[in-house]
Amino acid sequence: TIIMGMPHRGRLNVLANVTRKPLEELFCQFDPKLEPSDVSKKSPKSYIVGTGDVKYHLGTCIERL
């Protein structure tokens, strides 16, 4: 298990490029009118975490073997 903490600056970059969280998931979390496509719904290994009080408190949890 790896737990990373960091300031807001660069967090979205780390989520997208280091943890490989799909950009589509990130955009859908920022705009509630957006819906994830069928492709991203088929990714059960990644799910949304975060407090929800500020959009930059988004996180991710992903399982890799």
TrEMBL record:
**Which BP terms in the Gene Ontology apply to this protein?**
tricarboxylic acid cycle
Q: Tell me yes or no: is Oxidoreductase among this UniProt entry's keywords.
A: yes
Region forming the signal peptide: none
Keywords of the record, alphabetical order, are: Oxidoreductase, Thiamine pyrophosphate
Which InterPro entries is this protein grouped with?
2oxoglutarate_DH_E1 (IPR011603)
Q: Name one GO molecular function term.
A: oxoglutarate dehydrogenase (succinyl-transferring) activity
Kindly list the cofactors needed: thiamine diphosphate
Record's GO cellular component terms: mitochondrion; oxoglutarate dehydrogenase complex
Per the record, the similarity remark reads: Belongs to the alpha-ketoglutarate dehydrogenase family.
The name this protein goes by in its record: Uncharacterized protein
